[in-house]
């Protein structure tokens, strides 16, 4: 048979998603792939029930149902601080996964370079391969996950077409400061690059940190391709509702890429989700509060067990330091942990460009009882994970 495309040889399957399958195999509490085990808001589910018997079973407009885009534009204009045109500046996609892929394919030609901070969410490497982009990695150095301005400028000197900014960051929980964002903005301007943002954790930020939308910085609206989704904000990761917000000149070609890739996001789900997009600001305050409780619960439990960990400023992940166990492979560690301890984690090496294998990632988008059960299992962590 003829060979398959070279493109597919460039990457493995997603380790995050693989760890969910491994967790399921061992009946482990799955703190690997980040998704909630609690229900989405009742109002959204009630609306979904009604939608079943209404007329939403055929395609919506390819770049998103009109009322969904209008509700999204109203919410994001309020939060981002500038008016967003629902007809010209939004494409609704199948999750932010498609949004990021479509954004990359819109901005980047094969052979172009893109800056990616490391650690990074693993999809970006695959997005780069699929769009033909060549990543330039810039380290975010633990424990504070800051970056070196000179290293970043050296990366910009290679004339990248874009920088990918995950803020708040998966997996390190960093929330970029205004100063850091301004520095990135000045370099993007100086070297004339786009900034493609992944802001899916925009509402999951812990006190005293604040999320700043990159597009809201002076002069950045024109060069920012903002990707986000409803998955984390409304606990509907399986609905696959994401979007791109960008100036019309970017959205026009992005609409075409999206159309030929997927035609459109699920019409009934868009209709039901409009309910969530119209929630008052108190909803987002409550979401933040509930995630703060989950974060504090897990961190306290890890402290009690004397397991060293990061303290996330945003998003819902914590990195645990497993260097004391002396494993060469963090993947092997995570597989064993799922089997022996009964808790699923993601090996840190799947997020880092650098040879890091002493970190594993847990997420805490889980009911408090699930987190307590996981901590209970982790109490035998040291004993069971000894080599
Ligand atoms: N963002 C989530 C994670 O990092 C999962 C995303 C996904 O699997 N599509 O675990």
Model description:
With 387 residues, this protein is of the alpha/beta class. It has a single domain, classed as Aspartate Aminotransferase, domain 2, CATH 3.40.640. It contains 14 helices and twelve strands. The protein has helices at residues 6-9, 15-26, 42-52, 66-80, 95-107, 123-131, 149-157, 178-190, 248-262, 267-277, 281-304, 330-341, 368-378, 381-385; strands at residues 29-30, 90-94, 113-118, 134-139, 162-166, 194-198, 224-229, 241-245, 317-321, 343-344, 346-347, 359-363. The protein has a seven-stranded mixed β-sheet, sandwiched between helices. A three-stranded antiparallel β-sheet has the order 9-12-11. Strands 1-10 form a two-stranded parallel ribbon. Helix 8 (178-190) links the parallel strand 5 (162-166) and strand 6 (194-198). Helix 4 (66-80) packs parallel to helix 10 and helix 5 packs parallel to helix 6 (123-131). The longest helix is centred in the C-terminal third of the chain and has 24 residues, at 281-304. Glutamine is lined by residues 16-17, 33-34, 97, 121, 170. Glutamine binds at residues 16-17, 33-34, 97, 121, 170.
């Amino acid at each position: 048979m003829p060979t398959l495309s070279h493109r597919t040889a460039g990457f493995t399957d997603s380790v995050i998603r693989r760890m969910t399958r491994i967790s399921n195999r061992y009946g482990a509490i799955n703190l690997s792939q980040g998704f909630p085990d609690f229900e989405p808001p009742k109002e959204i589910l009630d609306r979904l029930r009604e939608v079943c018997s209404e007329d939403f079973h055929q395609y919506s407009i390819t770049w998103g149902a009109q009322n969904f885009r209008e509700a999204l534009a109203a919410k994001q204009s309020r939060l981002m601080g500038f008016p967003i045109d629902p007809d010209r500046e939004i494409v609704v996609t199948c999750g932010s996964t498609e949004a990021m892929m479509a954004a990359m394919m819109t901005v980047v030609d094969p052979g172009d370079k893109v800056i990616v901070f490391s650690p990074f969410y693993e999809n970006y490497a695959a997005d780069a391969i699929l769009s033909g982009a060549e990543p330039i990695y810039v380290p975010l150095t633990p424990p504070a996950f800051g970056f070196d301005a000179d290293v970043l400028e050296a990366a910009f000197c290679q004339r990248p077409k874009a920088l990918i900014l995950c803020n708040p960051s998966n997996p390190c929980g960093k929330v970029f400061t205004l100063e850091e964002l301004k520095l990135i903005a000045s370099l993007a301007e100086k070297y004339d690059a786009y900034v493609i943002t992944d802001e899916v954790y925009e509402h999951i930020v812990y006190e005293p940190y604040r999320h700043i939308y990159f597009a809201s910085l002076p002069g950045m609206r024109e060069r920012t391709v903002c990707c986000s989704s409803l998955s984390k904000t409304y606990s509907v990761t399986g609905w696959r509702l994401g979007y791109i917000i960008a100036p019309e000149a970017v959205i026009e070609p992005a609409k075409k890429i999206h159309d030929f890739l997927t035609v459109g996001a699920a019409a009934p789900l868009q209709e039901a989700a409009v309910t969530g997009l119209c929630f008052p600001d108190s909803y987002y305050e409550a979401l933040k509060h509930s995630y703060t409780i989950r974060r504090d619960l897990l961190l306290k439990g890890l402290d009690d067990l004397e397991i060293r960990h990061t303290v996330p400023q945003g998003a819902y992940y914590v990195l645990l330091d497993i260097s004391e166990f002396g494993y060469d492979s963090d993947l092997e560690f995570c597989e064993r942990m799922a089997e022996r301890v009964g808790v699923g984690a993601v090996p840190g090496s799947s997020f880092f460009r650098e040879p890091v294998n002493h970190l594993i990632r847990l997420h805490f988008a889980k009911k408090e009882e699930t987190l307590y059960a996981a901590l209970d299992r982790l109490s035998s962590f040291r004993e069971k994970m000894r080599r």
